[in-house]
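Tokens as discussed.
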């Protein structure tokens, strides 16, 4: 499988996320009133982080793909690019 790293299509045009109505239908179907309630009922408090993750600033998709391509070119999977 070839990975197309030169695609100019924007990520947001390819990403499909649920609409607010879809989200509310999902929550109603599983019997909770919010995502916070769902998290409270499914993820034990003792394994949750106590503070937010310390993440670097986000990259644009184009910037990420350039970095990714440089990294992958150093591996045995460089033939996928």
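Sequence:
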């Amino acid at each position: 499988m070839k990975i197309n790293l030169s695609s100019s299509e924007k990520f947001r045009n390819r990403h499909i996320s649920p609409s607010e109505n879809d989200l509310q239908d999902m929550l109603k179907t599983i019997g909770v009133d919010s995502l916070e309630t769902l998290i409270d009922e499914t993820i034990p408090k003792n394994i949750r982080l106590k503070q937010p993750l310390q993440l670097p600033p986000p990259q644009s998709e184009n910037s990420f793909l350039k970095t990714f391509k440089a990294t992958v070119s150093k591996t045995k999977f460089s033939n996928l690019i």
